[in-house]
Amino acid sequence: MENYVIRIDIPEIEEYLALRKDCGLSPRGKEASKIGLSNSIYSVIIRQSKNQKLIGMGRIIGDGGTAYQIVDIAVHPSKQGNGLAKKIMELLMTHIHNEIDPQAYVNLIADCPADNLYKQFGFVETAPESLGMYLKR
């Protein structure tokens, strides 16, 4: 990790949107992203040491009491395979274990094969008891 700087911080809006695009995540609006990022409960970013370019991120969002969701786990495709997503998850999970009520509901939506990463941290599929759903617009 010597070529990277890891911080508990939110990304700038433009770089957040660019990293989402580079990683193939769904697009988000600029104004909505500004609001969403500022309302993060906890956020981890990873930058390259030499040029400070954002190359990784992950956030926790939620109501601050009973329900939380891990979102925006992304590592630039050129930097994948170096353990950066795992480091992001380790920091998010440390916050969850140390700061969030153990009875709170913590969830995420996993793209495959990233589900294998999340399983390492104790996440399990909800099916068949429940199914993750979203509003398709």
UniProtKB/TrEMBL annotation:
Pfam families the UniProt entry points to: Acetyltransf_10 (PF13673)
Domain N-acetyltransferase: 4-137
Source superkingdom: Bacteria
Designated name of the protein: N-acetyltransferase domain-containing protein
Molecular-function GO term, any one: acyltransferase activity, transferring groups other than amino-acyl groups
Residues spanning the membrane: none
